[in-house]
Amino acid sequence: VAPIYSEDVLYALVGENFTFPVEIKQRIEEITWKKNKDKVAEQDGQTPPVYFAPLQSRSVLKENGNLTIFNLEKSDAGAYELHYWDSLNDGYLKFILEVLDPPSEPRISHSIQGDNLVLNCTSDFQRPVTYTWNLSNDPRSHQIQEFSIPIKNIDVTTKATCFITFSQTKKSSEISLIQCIS
């Protein structure tokens, strides 16, 4: 049987905890994780996993092949390979991990179009982010980058907050809406 083979590019941020998306259903006899051809973790049978530098004190290898790295650093970026043996077959999974600096706070710009205040949220981040708007006087969240609010719904206390989300990291900026229309 041919080994299972795939290669995925994955993105995570400095400081996050990251788990490679591995789900091996069958029982695994041996697991070896390599980064750029150097061993970083291995497990043989029922013995506890062994870890190697640079992941020695900040990674966990689970029985299903999952490898979690804690408190990611830029230097954790690279080509990772999982080799496993399930007593019948060899399996290989390859991942390219890119570790990015976290995004900075989003920028909010505004304009008036007819009877509406239009807010725009922008991010300088190099990957697509999720945009969410929250209004202080509205319990709903709005997953959209440009947000239009009828001017008649704005009072002196209304604030709008834009959140950008990438991976497990969320950043926000807030604006008082009365300053946009006065």
From TrEMBL:
Keywords tagged on the record: Glycoprotein, Membrane, Signal
Signal peptide: none
Subcellular localization: Membrane
InterPro entries: CD2/SLAM_rcpt, Ig-like_dom_sf, Ig-like_fold, Ig_sub
Superkingdom assignment: Eukaryota
Domain Immunoglobulin: 7-100
One CC-aspect GO term: membrane
PANTHER family recorded: LYMPHOCYTE FUNCTION-ASSOCIATED ANTIGEN 3, SIGNALING LYMPHOCYTIC ACTIVATION MOLECULE
Name used for this protein in its record: LFA3 protein
